[in-house]
What we know:
Elements: H1 20-36, H2 45-68, E1 71-74, E2 77-80, H3 82-101, H4 105-109
Antiparallel strand pairs: 1-2
Helix pairs in contact: 1-2, 2-3
Amino acid sequence: xxxxxxxxxxxxxxxxxxxxxxxxxxxxxxxxxxxxxxxxxxxxxxxxxxxxxxxxxxxxxxxxxxxxxxxxxxxxxxxxxxxxxxxxxxxxxxxxxxxxxxxxxxxxxxxxxxxxxxxxxxxxxxxxxxxxx
Length: 133
């Protein structure tokens, strides 16, 4: 986060189009990213909403599969329930976006590029001594 883009003063309300499951994730995780880790800005809220949407889809598909099972019998025999693919896609999307937002152990372990964290040389060594700042 740059110094010219402060976090919002309050936790923003979730978008009205989020499902109940996605809203729960919004309310659970957003305060951590905004207030504790201070890694999210207002500009990142659309990506965060996409993450919450994916989590909501996983939860809904999991409930369906719990009720109806992983397979069903079609005219040509047993078939995989469509919610299996929906759950899998949601998990993949959630994992990818979570990594971008710093919500996975691996993404938190990577060195961060922070303002003022260089050695004072900028990118000069990479560009033949040319200072880019």
